[in-house]
């Protein structure tokens, strides 16, 4: 494998990793330059500036991009590949283009599925999934990627067979920042899930109508059975519990940042399920390696 730069270009953040010829992580950087901060037609100049400010020597390296770089709001819109999706299929559908300063670049496509329930898509999580499989030598696994939009992913026979999206993280932000229930409250939950979170999970798991259950965050404040500073934890628990009430597998891997994956792990354990936490950056890097190995840039 030649030396490369792997880029995870998300909605709100930019992460880049330099990978040596031996496949080792040589350098990494993070910047608050997600795709929403980049004006249309300016992706090339922004990327060149970021790399030049980081280390101008990296401008000579080929680049493999994932995440939202291939979205409608990204650099180049890249079509989704259908399930069942694997590293070879992702590699076969890379979108290649030349960079204005010389090297070649490529964008990894997202993955889609069309079922009787509806159409669903992912961008970026597919890289983490194939990376997890490579990292742990998995052929079959059930996986979640907690974040703004959590994915429940069924990985079978080395392929993404099925998945569904839950907008739990986005709902939490809306409830806390734009609704009466969240007014005059701390805008973040506690660092570690506590009793209020567990109460919320229990109510969410009961499977009642979510809009009814969420209102308990308000009425418990009125009755003073829930302190104001515990309400964000309670609401977080309700939303995660409601999401997990549909999860039927005995175990799963959680890919993401620990503050959120810890909450999902606690909720899954409350449900009697086993969860294994895995670092998102490590999975992303391993996934990009898997794709590069299938089709060297």
The share of residues in helices is 25-40%
Beta-strand residue fraction: 15-25%
- Under the CATH scheme, which class of the domain at 166-279? Alpha Beta
Shape verdict? globular
Report the C-alpha radius of gyration, rounded. 20 Å
SS-derived structural category: alpha/beta
Number of strands: 14
First-last Cα distance: 9 Å
Q: Outline the low-pLDDT stretches.
A: none
Please give a structural write-up.
This protein has 297 residues and is of the alpha/beta class. The chain has a domain at 166-279: 2-keto-3-deoxy-galactonokinase, C-terminal domain (Nucleotidyltransferase, domain 5), CATH 3.30.420. It is 36% helix and 25% strand. It contains ten helices and 14 strands. The chain has helices spanning 43-55, 87-92, 125-136, 168-178, 195-205, 210-214, 216-222, 231-244, 258-270, 280-294, and strands spanning 4-9, 14-19, 25-31, 63-67, 81-82, 95-98, 104-107, 111-114, 119-122, 141-144, 150-156, 159-166, 251-256, 274-279. β11 (150-156) and β12 form a beta hairpin. α3 packs across α10, α4 packs antiparallel against α8 (231-244) and α8 (231-244) crosses α9.
Key phrases:
Nucleotidyltransferase, domain 5, five-stranded mixed beta sheet, 297 residues, six-stranded mixed beta sheet, alpha/beta
Task: Provide a short characterization of the protein structure.
This protein is an alpha/beta fold. The protein has helices spanning 43-55, 87-92, 125-136, 168-178, 195-205, 210-214, 216-222, 231-244, 258-270, 280-294, and strands at residues 4-9, 14-19, 25-31, 63-67, 81-82, 95-98, 104-107, 111-114, 119-122, 141-144, 150-156, 159-166, 251-256, 274-279.
């Amino acid at each position: 494998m030649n030396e490369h730069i792997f880029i995870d270009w998300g909605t709100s953040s930019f992460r880049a990793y330099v990978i040596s010829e031996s496949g080792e992580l040589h350098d990494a950087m993070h910047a608050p330059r997600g795709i929403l901060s980049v004006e249309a037609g300016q992706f090339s100049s922004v990327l060149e500036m970021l790399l030049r400010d980081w280390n101008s020597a990296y401008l000579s390296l080929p680049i493999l991009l994932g995440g939202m770089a291939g979205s409608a709001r990204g650099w180049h819109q890249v079509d989704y590949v259908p399930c069942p999706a694997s590293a070879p299929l992702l590699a076969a559908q890379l979108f290649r283009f030349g960079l204005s300063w010389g090297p070649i670049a490529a964008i990894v496509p997202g993955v889609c599925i069309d079922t009787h329930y509806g159409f669903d898509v992912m961008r970026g999580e597919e890289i983490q999934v194939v990376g997890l499989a490579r990292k742990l030598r998995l052929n079959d696994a059930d996986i979640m990627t907690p974040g703004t939009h959590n994915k429940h992913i069924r990985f079978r026979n080395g392929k993404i067979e099925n998945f569904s999206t839950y907008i739990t993280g986005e709902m939490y932000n809306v409830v806390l920042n734009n609704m009466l229930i969240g007014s005059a409250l701390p805008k973040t939950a506690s660092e570690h899930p506590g009793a209020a979170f567990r109460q919320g999970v229990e109510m969410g798991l009961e499977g009642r109508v979510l809009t009814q259950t969420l209102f308990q965050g308000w009425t418990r404040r009125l009755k003073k059975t829930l302190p104001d500073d515990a309400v964000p934890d309670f609401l977080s628990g309700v939303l995660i519990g409601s999401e997990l009430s549909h999860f039927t597998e005995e175990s799963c891997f959680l890919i993401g940042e620990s503050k959120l994956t810890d909450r999902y792990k606690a909720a899954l354990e409350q449900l009697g399920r086993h969860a294994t936490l895995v670092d998102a950056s490590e999975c992303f890097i391993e996934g990009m390696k898997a794709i590069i190995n299938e089709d060297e840039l």
